[in-house]
Amino acid sequence: MADDVVKIKSGKGVLHINFLQGATFVNVRKNLEEKLKSGSGFFLRGTVVLLPRDVFSAEENEELQKLFHEHGLICRTKTPEEAEMLIHNAAAKESRQIPKKSTKQDVQEMLVVNKTLRGGQEIRTESSVLIVGNVNPGAQIIAGGSIDIRGTCRGMVHAGATGDTSAIIVADHLMPTQIRIANLIARSPDAIEKSNRAERASIKNGCIIIEPIER
């Protein structure tokens, strides 16, 4: 039955997605879309979703990832071994945590914004940020963690604003007016070579470098 095409396993902060053996990509995508539109309690914004890597092609996996991103979810493809290890590590981490007496709300790990940031708009947060859209000139993002832009970045972006030198900035097209990571600043070159690959900015050897990556 269609309801059994996609099975969801909750594992300590992540969702492990499995497909019925022999199910076609068309049926899997349709069933996922129905579940996402139904507003299931599983699919909270910012939740990490793990997809099996070797069931469908890279193009089909990318289409499923985009479907989850449209609904504010963080989608990753993993082998079964990698998925089980991630769930195990998350469970171990949770078991070591000591309950806090403070009633202050914890800072969320990922802020998800499902829209393009236009000139004059600004996002400031202590967490990481996922933008499903573009960051236009005049817009800026200042994040304590990393920044992931599923679109073109032409604004000002500052990751690791609280001093985190391990923070990174990723975009489908990275062409910011200014880029900052921790206390380092860089600008886009005057001449930018267009590429069909996403790009990542990170700190290496005390400098911000930008390199192409595979999503």
Compact description:
The protein has 215 residues and is of the alpha/beta class. It is built from three helices and 15 strands.
Summary tags:
six-stranded mixed sheet, 3 helices, alpha/beta, 2 domains, Transcription Regulator spoIIAA, 35% strand, 15 strands
How does this structure look, described?
The protein has helices at residues 25-37, 58-70, 80-96; strands spanning 6-11, 14-19, 48-52, 74-78, 110-113, 122-125, 128-131, 140-143, 147-153, 156-159, 169-174, 178-181, 184-186, 198-204, 207-213. With 215 residues, the chain is an alpha/beta fold. The protein folds into two domains: 2-96, 2-Layer Sandwich (Transcription Regulator spoIIAA); 110-213, 3 Solenoid (Pectate Lyase C-like). The protein has a six-stranded mixed sheet, with no helix packed on it. Strands 6-8-10-12-13 form a five-stranded mixed sheet, with no helix packed on it. The chain has a four-stranded mixed sheet with strand order 1-2-3-4. The protein is elongated. The model is unreliable at 96-108 (pLDDT under 50).
